[in-house]
Amino acid sequence: MTTLWRPELLSGESSSPGLLRNFVDGGFVETGTTFPKLGPVTGAHLFDVCEADEATVDAAVTAARTALNGPWGRMSEQERAAVLRDVADELERRFDDLVAAEVGDTGKSISQARTLDIPRGAANFRAFADFATTTPTESYTTVLPDGRRALNYAVRKPAGVVAIIVPWNLPLLLLTWKVAPALACGNAVVVKPSEETPASATVLAEAMAAAGVPPGVFNLVHGFGPASAGEFLTRHDGVDAITFTGESATGTAIAKAAADGVKAVSFELGGKNAGVVFADANLDAAIEGSVRSTFTNGGQVCLCTERLYVERPVYEEFCERLALRADALTFGWPSEESTVNMPLISRQHRDKVLGYYDLARTEGATVLAGGGVPSFGDARDNGCYVQPTVVTGLPPDARTTTEEIFGPICHVAPFDTEDEAFAQANNSPYGLAATVWTRDVGRAHRAGTALDVGLVWVNTWFLRDLRTPFGGTKLSGLGREGGTHSLDFYSELTNVCVELS
Ligand SMILES: NC(=O)c1ccc[n+]([C@@H]2O[C@H](COP(=O)([O-])OP(=O)(O)OC[C@H]3O[C@@H](n4cnc5c(N)ncnc54)[C@H](O)[C@@H]3O)[C@@H](O)[C@H]2O)c1
Ligand SMILES: O=C/C=C/C=C(\O)C(=O)O
Asked: 200-235: string of b/e by CB count within 10 Å (b at 16+)?
């Protein structure tokens, strides 16, 4: 088993980097080229990662195709579901390794990894084992004008070889959100985690083998996007469907690659999510909820709020209290239970986010909290931290208030009427999620239809029921996953029409 715990997670003290390999046809394989994975807490060199070349990606796709024709393809839904439940058990057995992997790669706090990221890995497998074995397909009795009758019914079949490409912010959660339904529907998969977060996928590969998933059903290739494993995979003739989570611009590149083979695509993309706080809301809950929706995971969740609209009578109080809370969020080592803030994923991403902090000022913002980098006086000064930041005073067309930043920053603006609030929230090329804080039940339901987004949360944020449709409108995505929506993407439906005599 791969050792993922690294002492630098606790103290900044360096150890020698581990080696992370690709997983093809049931075994780990090295390639000639490696790239370094640096931890964002101290910049320490955590892993050397084997970059999959075109031949390795090809071997993975071929292994997946072969596996579809082997024992996996002949298993009943119930048998596959039993294997997936064993994978969930394995993930729970490897809980500490997964926490170490995720904390090392992302710098998120151990407490968040333990309560959010890692439990969802196992939960995803259990949920889709259940959905795939309990969801009915359509059936109609057809009566023709001449009195003949027919029975129509749909049969679910695997979509085939599915390519799964995911980002770095919630690595195991987002990977298993796609692997679990894909396998529950009988597909074979080739997954490519982000180059920034290769570690937890390694434990997942080991869990697959330990749970008896046949060789070739789950393959893992490491690397980058363009001219690397991502592009080799999305352009591969042997791939039938591509499911992708990441930036909208990457979605466009993948859509172009998918067009040639008319591959099915499912996209969960970027966001510039609004929070709307009405004066009738429970203000304490709205402030705490906005702290969570803005700063969780360093603001690096596609669902995070980057624009807040607050009804004028409570605007001043809201801004003041939100800024105080942002300043009070604790920095600490990821291993300390009290730690809330985490670093951004890389120096490159930190430069991008700090660029927006500067841009906000240039565009005329007032900075109420943060706006820079924290100083630790230890190895974390070599990491990728920024301060949680609250700004006000920008016009609706400022770049800071329209472009996805993907960091711990929000802009707060006042509004006077419900129509104005919803119009401002909708004034975005993105349409992923919105959060509304109100005690008016009519208004809460109106928000559901008025807001042009895939997900509306009322008096809460990121509360998930895995049966519900998940995805975005506009630049935020294509299609929905979750529950039966996932089953529809990861399977082909064949309609059978039998004339009844
Ligand atoms: N809507 C959602 O559910 C959701 C969830 C999480 C993150 N996101 C979005 O993800 C982004 C942050 O993640 P990121 O920076 O890793 O995104 P990214 O698009 O840069 O990378 C995502 C993945 O795509 C790969 N990739 C990049 N270019 C590719 C190409 N041309 N062909 C094939 N693969 C390619 C990367 O290597 C990585 O594995 C944000 O925009 C965020 O909003 C969306
Ligand atoms: O960063 C984006 C978070 C996405 C969350 C999910 O896909 C989920 O909870 O299933």
From this structure: bbbbbbbbbbbbebbbbbbbbbbbbbeebbbbbbbb
Pairing mode, strands 139-143 and 149-158: antiparallel
> What DSSP assignment string belongs to 125-144?
HHHHHHHHHH----EEEEE-
Specify the ligand 2 atom closest to the Cα of 466. 10
The pLDDT assigned to 16 comes to: 80
99, two tokens: 């926490």
250-286 pLDDT, tens digit each: 999 999 999 999 999 999 999 999 999 999 999 999 9
Domain ranges, ordered by start, for the chain? 18-269+476-496, 273-466
Q: Sheet harboring 161-165: ordered strands across?
A: 27-29, 22-24, 218-220, 188-192, 161-165, 241-245, 264-268, 477-478
| Distance between CA atoms of residues 221 and 201, nearest Å | 10
- C-alpha 366/C-alpha 464 separation (Å) is 34
Q: Is 302 in the pocket of ligand 2 (CB under 6 A)?
A: yes
According to DSSP, the β-strands at 473-474 and 430-431 are antiparallel
Place of tokens 């679910």: 156
Cα–Cα distance measured from residue 198 to residue 228, given in angstroms and rounded to the nearest whole number: 15
CA angle 108, 338, 285 (to 5 degrees): 90
Distance CA 162, CA 234 (A): 10
Q: Which fold has domain 18-269+476-496?
A: Aldehyde Dehydrogenase; Chain A, domain 1 (3.40.605)
Residues with CB under 6 A from ligand 1: 165-169, 174, 192, 194-195, 224-226, 230-231, 234, 245-247, 250, 253-254, 268-271, 302, 404, 406, 432, 472, 476-477
Distance set, CA 345 to CA 168, 246, 367, 498 (Å):
8, 14, 23, 56
Q: Tell me the C-alpha distance between 267 and 481, whole Å.
A: 9
What the block records as the tokens of 442 is 């009519």
Beta carbons of 268 and 472 less than 8 angstroms apart: yes
- The one-letter amino acid code at 244 reads F
Strand partners, 366: 392
Identify whether the C-beta of residue 359 lies closer than 8 Å to the C-beta of residue 400. Answer: yes
ipTM of the shown complex: 0.95
Alpha-carbon distance of 302 to 463, in angstroms, equals: 14
Is the CB–ligand 2 distance for residue 169 below 6 Å? yes
What's the fold here for domain 273-466? Aldehyde Dehydrogenase; Chain A, domain 2 (3.40.309)
Residue 74 burial class via C-beta count within 10 angstroms: exposed 0-12, middle 13-18, buried 19 and up: exposed
Testing ligand 2's pocket by substitution, the residue of 126, 464, 485 carrying the most ligand atoms inside 8 A of its CB is 464
pTM for the structure as a whole: 0.97
Q: pLDDT by residue (tens digit) across 364-387?
A: 999 999 999 999 999 999 999 999
